[in-house]
Amino acid sequence: xxxxxxxxxxxxxxxxxxxxxxxxxxxxxxxxxxxxxxxxxxxxxxxxxxxxxxxxxxxxxxxxxxxxxxxxxxxxxxxxxxxxxxxxxxxxxxxxxxxxxxxxxxxxxxxxxxxxxxxxxxxxxxxxxxxxxxxxxxxxxxxxxxxxxxxxxxxxxxxxxxxxxxxxxxxxxxxxxxxxxxxxxxxxxxxxxxxxxxxxxxxxxxxxxxxxxxxxxxxxxxxxxxxxxxxxxxxxx
Length: 237
Fold this sequence. Notes:
By secondary structure, this protein is of the alpha/beta class. The chain has nine helices and eleven strands. The strands form three sheets. It has a six-stranded parallel β-sheet, with helices on both faces. The radius of gyration is 18 Å and the shape is elongated. Keywords: Cytoplasm, NAD, Transferase.
């Protein structure tokens, strides 16, 4: 164990749902009653950019109203205690940052940013408002949400794999481990690195060797964090 224990946390929609953010659920293929093919694919953007922009502008307003919950706050508090905490999230909201976490990697992008349609390196913070048709980057191209749509590559995946390989403990929170390539992150941990999944359905979702903690993020994460803070390490034995 490193002198400053390195906790890598992989979070999914379950942690944001407890803050009231409605999320995509693969079971019905809908996101806020919209087929994902109509609002979260490159084809949808080409076919009807206004509908896509309207959809994300509404999601953005929802996220701005949401607040970090106990799970977000507990992870930030652990970092403040001197633990090395790296968060990899599938979520496009900023709740981890607003809770105080400083090292957050957004695998699927950030809804509170816009980016150029022709140069993905050109990103712009959306401190208020949304993106409209006619809003353009410095190269004159239409701005789009800075999110990874279905069918697009995940540019930060390699960086996430590197983080996972450095973990002293991998904590997975609120994800079904069903969306690729993110679900394959667990294969990048060292064979002897402990891993736990916090989710109300953890028993059904946990791969072999992963400790299942059947509870919500808001209950399970603070309980783990309090234990680690008292012990000064990331052990569960």
